Amino acid sequence: MPLSPPTIIQGGMGVAVSNWRLARAVSLTGQLGVVSGTLLAVVQTRLLQQGDPGGHLRRAFDHFPLPAIAERVWRDYFVSGGLPKGMPFKAVPMPTLDSSAALIELTVLANFAEVWLAKEGHSGHVGLNLLEKIQLPTLPSLYGAMLAGVDHVLMGAGIPRAIPGVLDRLARGEAAELKIDVAGALPGEEFVGRFDPRSLFPEGPPTLTRPEFFAIVSSATLALTLARKSTGRVDGFIVEGALAGGHNAPPRGALQLSACGEPIYGPRDIPDLPKIRELGLPFWLAGAFSSPGKIAEAQAHGAVGVQVGTAFAFCEESGIIPDLKRRVRELVRAGAARVHTDPFASPTGFPFKIAQLAHTLSDAVTYAARDRLCDLGYLRQLFRRADGTVGYRCAAEPAADFLRKGGTEPELAGRKCLCNGLAATVGLAQTRANGYVEAALVTAGDELAQLARYFDFDCDSYHAADVIRVLLGPPALA
Fold first, then answer.
1. Which of 101, 304, 431, 465 is buried most, with the most CB atoms less than 10 Å from its CB?
2. Contacts of 388 (CB under 8 A, 6+ apart)
3. Is residue 421 included in any domain, yes or no?
4. CATH at residue 61
5. Which residue, among 427, 419, 422, has the nearest Cα to 443 in the 3D structure?
6. Is residue 439 one of the residues assigned to a domain?
7. Has residue 287 been placed in a domain?
8. Is 90 exceeded by the pLDDT of residue 209?
9. Which of 1, 104, 24, 12 is nearest to 317 (CA)?
10. Is residue 273 within 8 Å of residue 301, measured between CB atoms?
């Protein structure tokens, strides 16, 4: 463990935006680099079908402690030289309450490989970011990352009370369970996901180092609940405000929208930092804290430092494809960069921040051109059928299917397929049978317009190290 906690935590963003390259670059500076664990099974199988550019996955797979699994995944998905242009990617099974052994093994392997690559060749620390809302792949994701020696686990978008205890059990090589949210479950009725390391290591799993757990919270009440009622040790908090990118906590009370259709946040939504400080655990502030002055402000409130996302999302090492980065930087230069907090886009029902960019799903014409479809399934809601079995629905799937499964009309309005849109953002867009290519969806925090502080106007790019250099520089004079 480090002698002192990092001042800067790089946010775990999107689908492969916070990839191993970005996390590694940040860790090499002595700060905490973080990989996103979201959809990693999809991300890596598509990279294999692109021919494993650079041979990086082959290198990581060769270090996986269960070679038979790595070789099976390689045989199933690797395409030498990559798929021909316009050829659809081979599908990966959608996660379910009883996911196949093959999908579980793939998820373990994918998280191992991402963390292993981020940690390769240096002693810096690396974290894994997961969403509490995406529950089904959580256990194998955690185990795969722990096999690679992940140092920290960060989780928000819910109340991850069970995760500290899960980390304890997995570190000891014991089976772990996670209660799964199922809409319509009867009183006293519980549904659980289960993962047993012995399914992979029949002769006995290894003892692993238990990573530190940082909960991402938006209020002192949630921090207090997690500190006192979690199943194990919480090691710190990332206190995220409504200006941060990705999913935001909804405003307290009845939803009210501004004239431009964004949720209105009020005084009740401002975290009570003195109460969080009283818990005695380290914490970091997130959401428009990417400047030396804001870091000083955070530390004056008792924070160790800050978590920064957007500034890293558009640097050279992030997973966003170069053309999108270039277009965003052009908007920043022109003073036209804008982010919309969309209360309806995400199938989770959480507000979701979307950078406004032509020819992406933020564009009404581009959005309307896409047929509703859910074929990745990570944001599906589980629901109880009348016979007691579990069904799956997504508010971004075809309307008739969603309604037939018990969904309601209001839930359909404005929903976007985040899974496919975010995958397209990092160059992994699926091509449909009719030739349609999935459009990108770019998420960013409200500080997108401030990106110019990291690059000269005559320069077309910047690096993660440039972000660190600016953040750790002297505060600007008033």
1. 304
2. none
3. no
4. 3.20.20
5. 422
6. no
7. yes
8. yes
9. 24
10. yes
